[in-house]
Specification:
Length: 473
């Protein structure tokens, strides 16, 4: 792109701008390309140095990859046909604000209003074939710059791996997760069954300096009590009848990595003593062995039972409790996560929609309402099961409350006054914001609160300016 700049040979402004924009960025800028084809009018090799290009061929993989990625530019190839399910999957993936999208399309594809809507709602720009390579690079460089403006936000979101959640309580949990990941002390995770404790433990491991080591997860409640000791610590050949060969226990298998002890509250007292000894000394001895083996690993434990009550009843040792709970993380119940319920339901639909016998186009209003009102005693696990069952069983275009088996009044527990107030506050703010085109100043004036208060309330209810609904939808 460089050219001579003699008196009579001045570059014009556009050329100077193009020169600046199209030369290689100082650090490799990431770009993700969603295309079935290696050559989508431009091959990855043509990006040149300074671009780190990753191509996603299957749109069903997009959401998973983008969810935990760094800020980057994205190219979406809309020249080819996508099925309705694929378009749904695309839409899921395009919603992440830290990736800024540029579409490549054709005049013919622009006649499809679903394609026009995707571009209008999720892309910062688009190019039509035939396009010049400079034009695409110029647009992408802009898109990358826009994505980088989300840098602060993504570092806050990055360490939680595959966990979905955007509500205030999940964001707070992700921030705590990032902090505990950078420390090596034992972590205790509390939360109701099915809230994602194991997923959080995995995310801590992945974000920690031990990520290259193993992640070993065991459910202490699922091992018969007479086997816990030998499973955890291993044994030597001949240690007991039937010990025909040496067995390396779970703790030793986690050497260099992370050991996740789920349902720690179910650990028999005898094993609690042995685990405490390991935590104090950093060594184990296999059953029937004489050698003390030094180990370096991190323990993360979890339970859905009340360990304080278990201590009071003498079922759990207080000294072990204090050793395990150096750092704590609490995962909120699903019913406390507001619209994350719908985010998760849509993610399950995007992932499993292909299991349906006909194309499903989302959730009906009655299903959405029922999901928001239901108490979800089994949390995310229950939501996944209900949505997956509905996907397979439904005869409808949109999943209904009945498909989710949330149709009877019996499943809908009465709401508390607090919950009703919260919902009314959220709805009031959302509708006033919408009526002012999501401009904070006039909305705050109408609601008779200060701008700062309105920002705080928007944060609390996870209302974002970007969620502005599009007219006609
Ligand atoms: N925030 C989330 N985003 C996406 N999937 C989630 C999330 N939380 C939980 N899940 C999924 O929900 C299911 C249950 O999660 P997990 O096993 O981690 O829960 P748990 O709290 O450890 O359950 P239990 O107490 O019964 O052991 C898993 O399939 C997990 O992948």
């Amino acid at each position: 792109m460089r050219r001579e700049t003699g008196m009579n040979n001045k570059p014009n402004v556009r050329e100077i701008v193009m020169d600046r924009l199209c030369k290689a960025p100082t650090r490799a800028a990431q770009v993700v390309v969603v295309s079935r084809h290696e050559d989508f009018g431009f091959t990855p090799a043509q990006f040149g140095p300074g671009w780190d290009v990753r191509r996603i061929q299957q749109v069903r993989d997009l959401e998973r990859i983008v969810r935990s990625s760094a800020p980057m530019a994205g190219v979406i190839d809309l020249q080819t046909e996508y099925s309705d399910v694929e378009l749904g999957q695309l839409e899921q993936g395009l919603q992440h604000l830290h990736v800024t999208w540029v579409a490549i399309t054709t005049d013919a594809r622009l006649a499809d209003q679903r394609i026009r809507r995707l571009i209008r709602d999720y892309c910062v720009d688009y190019v039509r074939t035939p396009f010049s390579h400079d034009e695409l690079l110029y647009t992408l460089k802009h898109a990358h710059g826009m994505a980088c403006l989300h840098h602060g936000r993504t570092t806050e979101m990055a360490p939680h791996g595959t966990m979905i959640g955007e509500c205030a309580s999940m964001r707070a949990m992700f921030r705590s997760l990032a902090k505990v990941a950078h420390n090596d002390a034992p972590v205790f995770i509390s939360g109701e069954s099915g809230t994602g404790k194991e997923l959080a433990a995995q995310a801590i491991h992945e974000a920690s300096s031990r990520r290259k080591g193993p992640f070993v997860a065991i459910n202490c409640g699922a091992i018969p009590s007479h086997l816990v000791q030998s499973e955890l610590f291993g044994y030597e050949k001949g240690a007991f009848t039937g010990a025909n060969q040496r067995k390396i226990g779970w703790i030793e298998q986690a050497q260099g990595g992370t050991l996740f002890l789920d349902e720690i509250g179910d650990l028999p007292l005898e094993s609690q003593v042995a685990l405490l000894r390991f935590l104090q000394q950093g060594t184990i001895t296999r059953l029937g062995g004489h050698q003390s083996i030094p180990l370096d690993l991190r323990i993360i434990s979890a339970t859905h039972v009340d360990l304080v009550a278990a201590q009071a009843d003498g079922r759990f040792r207080a000294d072990l409790f204090h050793r395990l709970c150096v750092l704590t993380l609490t995962i909120p119940a699903l019913r406390e996560r507001g619209e994350d319920i719908l985010l998760l339901a849509n993610a399950v639909l995007a992932e499993h929609g292909h299991e349906a016998h006909r194309r499903i186009r989302g959730f009906s209003p009655c299903a959405t309402q029922a999901m928001m009102q239901y108490a979800w005693p089994g949390n995310v696990r229950e939501l996944i099961n209900r949505v997956r069952r509905a996907i397979v069983m439904t005869d409808n275009r949109k999943i209904t409350a009945e498909d989710l088996q949330l149709h009877g009044g019996a499943e809908l527990p009465r709401k508390t006054l607090d919950a009703i107030r919260e919902e009314a506050e959220r709805e009031a703010i959302r509708s006033v914001m919408a009526s002012h085109g999501f401009h904070v100043v006039p909305a705050a004036r109408e609601l008779n609160v200060s701008r700062v208060t309105l920002y705080r309330l928007m944060h609390k209810h996870n209302i974002r300016v970007e969620t502005q609904p599009t007219a006609g939808e």
